[in-house]
Design a protein that fits this description.
Length: 322
């Protein structure tokens, strides 16, 4: 983990010039400064054109709160520390999963590999709330695979408090239920705690119920992007050309393909009442789902790549028959 952490900090430093050119960086820094000075933001008079002078809704409340505390401590430098700290938390959760299912050398390789992909390395270096989602989602995945209900519950509560894209954890929980409904009381309790945590996180958000409306609006806007031509979409949601897609993500797609072949060979095990028979098809299905989304919008690689690393060690365990 230490090697992976050092490599992550190097990646953040290396992509700093890219992060500085990101316009969202300065928007979130401005929110962090105002949060440090005023606390919870209900209005932002500086953006009256959007009606924020009368009512402001922060879709990433907990991320902004953390950045505000950092700003109060050491101005912009303190706020910007949120990015590497949350990145290290994400790496810790991923390492816990990888080291549990695979040997140390394989875990180290799979921990570093995502950081060597420019698309992912760039995303994990930005001062944006999706980095909070990385950390919460990966710890939820760790809790789910180890059937630690309290880890899943805490992660599920935190995710909607820090990020609006709740479809990410919800989709994985639904897939896990489909394959794990016969997995025993402990797994069902874990899934129930996950669903309860997401609902609780939504309700505990200081902006509730407006956060629900904002989440629905964000989903609607994302769907509307699919009806636009590439020239009309934000650069981050423009589909990747097929040749570029295979060049950038080909290695990860090979892992998914090999795992799919293995899964088809062992399909009968998916319906067994083994305590752990649900894990492989769950991670495989979630990986395929997010790679399909990545083909539509490259931003989805931020979930597809970590899921594929987890799939690699779960597949390793399946091959060993353990």
């Amino acid at each position: 983990f230490t090697i992976g952490a050092v490599f992550h900090l190097f990646v953040v430093y290396h992509f700093e010039h890219v992060a500085k050119s990101d316009p969202d960086r300065y928007f979130h820094l401005a929110l962090a400064k105002m949060t440090a000075e005023k606390g919870l933001l209900r209005t932002v008079p500086q953006v009256e054109d959007l009606g924020w002078g009368k009512r402001f809704l922060e879709r990433s409340f907990l991320f902004t709160w953390m950045a505000g505390q950092g700003y109060r401590w050491n101005a912009e430098r303190g706020a910007l520390l949120v990015t590497p700290v949350l990145g290290l938390i994400f790496l810790l959760a991923l390492f816990l999963i990888l080291s549990r299912f695979g040997p140390a050398p394989l875990a180290l390789l799979l921990l570093i590999l995502p950081l060597s992909v420019p698309d992912f390395a760039n995303r994990i270096s930005l001062f944006r709330p999706h980095i909070f989602a990385f950390a919460a989602f990966t710890f939820l995945l760790y809790g789910l695979l180890t059937e630690r209900a309290w880890v899943v519950f805490v992660s599920a509560v935190l995710f909607p408090l820090g990020y609006h894209g709740i479809y990410v954890p919800v989709s994985v929980l639904i897939i896990a239920f489909v394959f794990g409904r016969n997995g025993g009381k402990r797994l069902l309790k874990t899934l129930l705690m996950g669903g309860t945590g997401i609902v609780l996180g939504i309700v505990l958000n200081p902006y509730f119920p407006l956060n629900v409306v904002a989440g629905a609006d964000s989903f609607r806007i994302a769907i509307n992007f699919f009806h636009l031509g590439p020239e009309d979409r934000p650069i981050e949601v423009v589909p990747v050309r097929s040749d570029e897609f295979l060049t950038i993500f080909g290695f990860f797609l090979c892992i998914v393909l090999l795992s799919l072949v293995l899964g088809l060979q062992k399909q009968s095990r998916w319906n067994e009442r083994s305590r752990y028979s649900w894990q492989f098809p769950t991670i495989l299905s979630a990986s395929i789902l997010f790679w399909v989304l990545t083909a539509i919008t490259r931003r989805a690689c931020e979930y597809a790549i970590p899921l594929t690393m987890v799939l690699a060690v779960v597949t390793y365990r399946e091959l060993r028959g353990t």
